[in-house]
Each structure stands twice: as C-alpha cells, then as structure tokens.
Design a protein that fits this description.
The structure holds two protein chains of two kinds. By secondary structure, chain A is of the alpha+beta class. Chain A has two helices and five strands; from the N terminus they run βββββαα. Chain B is α+β, with helices and mostly antiparallel strands. Chain B has four helices and 16 strands. In chain B, helix 1 packs across helix 2. The longest helix of chain B is centred in the N-terminal third of the chain and has 23 residues. Chain B starts with a strand and ends in a 5-residue tail after the last strand. Classes of the chains: A alpha+beta, B alpha+beta. The interface between A and B is medium-sized, with 18 and 18 residues. Strand 5 of chain A pairs parallel with strand 1 of chain B, so a sheet runs across the interface.
Chain lengths: 99, 250
C-alpha cells in the first residue's frame, strides 16, 4: 500500500464533544497503527491552529484526502485560522451542492 | 482511517465495480474441467485491460496473477498456473479486482466445475447466503461487528466456520482500506456504519475448522484440516438511497 500523509486532509469527528464537526489534520503524531494512531486537528474556530486537538484516528472519518496546497501552507506555518475556517466552510458548501 | 466517499466518488467507483463484475462473469463461462487456472487468469486480464482498466491484484505485494484462483481446500490467494488444471467435481474460487479512474473494485465467486458433491453445492449456497445476511446489516447506525456476527451466526447453523485470519475491508483509492470487516464478531461492536462507506464484504467459509495455513509459495491459503472452503465477495457502498452493490452485474 502507498504511504500517504494525512496532513491537510479533511476529517469528521465521530466521537467526543466535537462529534460531527469537521477539521483539518495539522500533524500526524503516530499513524503506525492507523486506527490506533493519533493526529492533531484544528478548524480555525472551535479549535485554533495554535491550540489543536489531539484525536485518535479511529474516532475520525476521512472525508477528503490531503490537499497538497493546504499541506504546504501547514508545513510553512502560513495558514491562518481565518483561512482554515473559510477552507472548511467552502468544503461544506461544495459537498452540500453535491447532495 | 476509514474514508467516506461522496456521491461523485461512488459514481466513479461504479465503473471499476462493473468491470470487476463483468470480468468474473466472463471467467465463469470458461470454468470447466480441463482448463488451467492460468487460462482463466488470461481471460480475466484480457477482459479488464480491454475495458481500459488495470487488474488490481497484478503485482500487488508481488502477486504474479491478475486474479486469485483457489481450488477446493484452498481458501484464497491461489496463484494461477498452467499446471493447475480444473477437474470435474472441483469448486474454484475466483477473486478479481479492477482499477480505473482512481478506484478499485473487488469481487469473488465460487464456481462448481461440472457436477459437484451435494456437500460442496450446499457450501457454495450457504456462503452466498451468508453474504446476503451480512448485507442486511450494512446500514447506517449499525456497527461493523453486526456484519461479522450475521455471517458467523448463519454459517455455524450448518456446522461450518468462518475464516478468522483473513477479513473483508474498505475499498477505494486503495484496494485495502480501513476498516477491517471480519466474518465473525459481536453485534453492536466495532466502528459505526455510516453513509459513504464502501466495503468489500467477503465471507470465506470452511466446512471444517476456521484454521488456515499458508503454502510455501508465500500466497496460497488452505484450510488447516483439508476441508472445502468457499468465498463470496462484492464491493458495496452505502448511499443516501440505500445499498449499492457495485460489483454485482447481470
């Protein structure tokens, strides 16, 4: 199987207080066990980039694979909370149009 | 991580699924005594490539064939060979995958070669029905454990066992994605099923014990006790309109 990074992916939480909310993965702490691994998330509003949420992979569902442009901005520390929130809003509006 | 597919992605997966299903139908027409498993593999590869797709299994982890073709007590992952000839009374499992437009389809069937024993015939029927029972559990709000429990609960009534070492899986951009979909389990346990999940549900059912062993070719998996084994698999998606069986054609 190809190695893929989750950084820059859009995920939906399925457990905890933030269940049903969508986030972007900022950092992968440990994906060696995949379902047992941890990642750090933010959405620019509930969870800010400077205070991301640590979450188990098994409590997330992948909605969109990593956007390389977004991953670059995360890696370069140039992503703002405002831009991240707008990115997720845009994603949600697009998927609503699909449905 | 379990990947949720949107409507456009599931639509794209229909193509991979259709080619996979059609490749199996084509192979079925060639299943008869005297035919080699390599010949069946060639038929499948040719069909998939003519449809503009790639055989998902060819080269996957180094697998040398386009299909896994397993006979009688071979459970899965049989390597196609010109020396392996089907005989009257055999049961043959053909597992096929096709990759096109960025997505895989994955499906398997067990075919009878000519007339088979009543016990082999029953095993094939029960295995297919166990898939149908599993599919009834593939609905939003249920858990993955409900699928496995349905398979195991049904086949044990016949004294059969579900293989535990190998399991179903998610399907998408990768042939094997999360979650694992075992053919055994506890109802109400495991990841919650939701719309947008695409799974390969694939009961592998043995007449005897669930234990298996590997041949030293590094691939072929056999029942540990030499009993017959059957396999039935489809790639299925859960959409807002219900279940879409992507690989069932005809």
């Amino acid at each position: 199987m190809m190695e893929k990074s989750y950084v820059g992916s859009i995920v939906r939480s399925v457990a905890g207080r933030d269940a049903k909310r969508i986030f972007v993965i900022l950092t992968v702490e440990d994906d060696s066990g995949d379902e047992g691994g941890y990642v750090w998330l933010a959405d620019g509003r509930l969870r800010k980039i400077e205070k991301p949420k640590r979450k188990k992979l098994r409590h997330l569902r992948l909605l969109a694979e990593a956007d390389p442009a977004l991953a670059d901005r995360i890696a370069g520390d140039s992503l703002t909370n405002r831009a991240l929130y707008a990115y997720l809003q845009n994603y949600e509006s697009m998927t609503h149009e699909d449905a | 991580m379990i990947q949720i597919k949107n409507a456009a992605q599931i639509l794209a997966m229909k193509k991979a699924g259709r080619i996979t299903g059609e490749a199996l139908l084509t192979a079925r027409e060639h299943v008869k005594a005297g035919v080699s498993t390599k010949y069946l593999d060639d038929v499948i590869r040719s069909y998939i490539e003519r449809a503009g797709a790639k055989p998902s299994f060819l080269g996957y982890g180094g697998f040398p064939g386009s299909a896994c073709i397993s006979i009688n007590d071979e459970v899965i992952h049989g390597i196609p060979s010109a020396k392996r000839i089907l005989e009257e009374g055999d049961i043959v499992k053909i597992d096929v995958g096709a990759f096109i437009d960025g997505f895989h389809g994955d499906s398997a069937r067990t075919f009878a070669v000519g007339r088979v024993s009543p016990e082999a015939e029953q095993l094939i029927k029960v295995t297919e029905e166990s898939f149908r029972r599993a599919l009834e559990q593939f609905k939003a709000g249920n858990r993955i454990g409900d699928i496995g429990a349905a398979v195991e609960g049904y086949v044990t009534k016949f004294g059969y066992s579900a293989v535990r070492k190998y399991v179903g899986h998610g399907v998408g951009h990768d042939l094997h994605e999360s979650p694992d979909v075992p053919n055994f389990g506890t109802p109400g346990r495991g990841p919650r099923i939701c719309q947008g999940m695409v799974l390969a549900i694939e009961p592998m059912i043995n007449i005897g014990t669930p234990n298996v062993k590997e041949l030293n070719d590094g691939w072929t998996v056999l029942t540990a006790d030499g009993s017959l084994s059957a396999h039935y698999e489809n790639t299925v998606a859960l959409t807002p309109d219900g279940i879409l069986n992507l690989t069932e054609v005809g």
